[in-house]
């Protein structure tokens, strides 16, 4: 966490320097991949890389003073925003165009564009938040272009439209064309005619940017969204944290045809290549609420989960979570070849026809959930139940940690022993299985603060309610569980708690060492501690033997680190395991504790 913040600050400073330094030469901007999107366009497969300058972002806690702090209430939002940017970036007010803004919950948000000769920049923007007359946040991709094109076009708008129609295989839709500046990756700003091009048959709809001096198509904005879901984002645990509208959350590297196609059949409901979410019968899915894969079923948590809208929401949320988790795991190595759950495998190995079936609000039980993992090639079966501790009852389908816990049984059972679904059968290994499931739910819902983690709090009524005996925590006061506590119990969840808490602490150790990356779930190349953790998690499952023990599961983590990171985290891992009695002399079978680490890991 510490190192990530440092990194972030230095990036910000570098960007601000580039912005305010006037004549001084600067290196060409090194654009991270997130500033690019490659579009494949039209019938000719034309490829265009759209560039968006990196956005610097600063937050200021309770806020900082700004030029109109003292007169904020008499100033318009536009005046305050323009004055702040003018002061902060040291640029002329004529280069700043206020676009829009609003005030909500005592916070005012202003959205601004860069401008030159009265013409706005399309991809150079800023946003400012004011609270209590102070600035609390500032984001900016403003640039100081090295070259800027003349503001009078030398190519006609008609010629620009013809170029765009040809390249994008569509028709100009008569929405008035406009002139805008566009910043390119080389630091220059071109003048562009912006025209909208549509093709209803091919379902394409673009804003095309045609250089108003050279006549070339330089960039596009793609308006077509593949799908929209109103759900609880996978990074949140409880419905009380707020549902959100997510547009195109699928990761194409993991689900190449999106979430609603297996290459043969395309769907418009909560069934797809990775999962089908249904109620009572496999065919009883939730349809899109509007065309083009919009799934918008807002919750009403004041009425029973079994009311129609809430049933829909349960299916949509589990459909989304299983897909999102499928995609993240895929990037970290749970693929067709390593026996994952998909109907079509696109020729990439493994057995197909085994997408996950999620039975939502299943009537077979209450106050629980489960997941059955048959061998690769047969569908995984998740059953989610209603919880009866509250009035109205609560639906486990809406509590993401429970859904992720269950799906992780599929991960651990398929990766251990090579897809048989038969290698977590002993009491100890089933206990470890519960531990992986809790630890995975914990991983998805952490941010850089790595707080103590409670499982199943909301379905039990919220507050400090916890399905487990203790929160997961590095503190031995909050969570005293140690390796020796495995002795004498055959309760798999109690055994799992020991393992999950060890992994919680491994996660903290890795993030302390390597920082936290909030994009890790879609970025397996990240070197941050949370990404390292997930790699080791999956790698170790693949390495460990059939029916592992704490001792062999520990050895698999250490080997996974040797394989992937050359043992860079070996002593860190030993240190965490030893801290709770799973040191190098710990004994399997009778659970005798030991706090030793290998000699080369002994601190000086
Ligand atoms: C089905 O969906 C895929 C992926 O979005 C798309 O490429 C394909 O054209 C669609 N097929 C039909 C018949 O609509
Ligand atoms: C645990 O097992 C080990 C190895 O078999 C043995 O040496 C040790 O005495 C045992 N400890 C206890 C407390 O039973
Ligand atoms: Ca499979
Ligand atoms: Zn479980």
Overview of the molecule:
This protein is α+β, with helices and mostly antiparallel strands and 604 residues long. The protein folds into 4 domains: 13-53 and 147-222, no CATH class; 56-140, Nuclear Transport Factor 2, Chain: A; 225-418, Roll (Elastase, domain 1); 424-604, Neutral Protease, domain 2. 27% of the residues lie in helices and 21% in strands. The chain contains 10 helices and 22 strands. The protein has helices at 2-20, 77-89, 157-168, 308-331, 400-415, 427-444, 492-514, 529-543, 550-565, 570-579; strands at 36-41, 46-51, 56-64, 96-104, 107-116, 119-131, 134-140, 147-148, 171-172, 178-183, 188-199, 204-211, 217-222, 228-231, 244-247, 275-278, 294-295, 356-359, 369-372, 381-384, 386-387, 394-395. Strand 4 and strand 5 (107-116) form a beta hairpin. The longest helix is centred in the middle third of the chain and has 24 residues, at 308-331. The radius of gyration is 27 Å and the shape is globular. One 2-acetamido-2-deoxy-beta-D-glucopyranose binds at residues 257-258, 261, 266.
Topology:
Layout: H1 2-20, E1 36-41, E2 46-51, E3 56-64, H2 77-89, E4 96-104, E5 107-116, E6 119-131, E7 134-140, E8 147-148, H3 157-168, E9 171-172, E10 178-183, E11 188-199, E12 204-211, E13 217-222, E14 228-231, E15 244-247, E16 275-278, E17 294-295, H4 308-331, E18 356-359, E19 369-372, E20 381-384, E21 386-387, E22 394-395, H5 400-415, H6 427-444, H7 492-514, H8 529-543, H9 550-565, H10 570-579
Parallel strand pairs: 8-11, 14-17, 16-18, 18-20
Antiparallel strand pairs: 1-2, 3-7, 4-5, 5-6, 6-7, 9-11, 10-11, 11-12, 12-13, 14-15, 19-20, 21-22
The site of calcium ion has 10 residues, from loops.
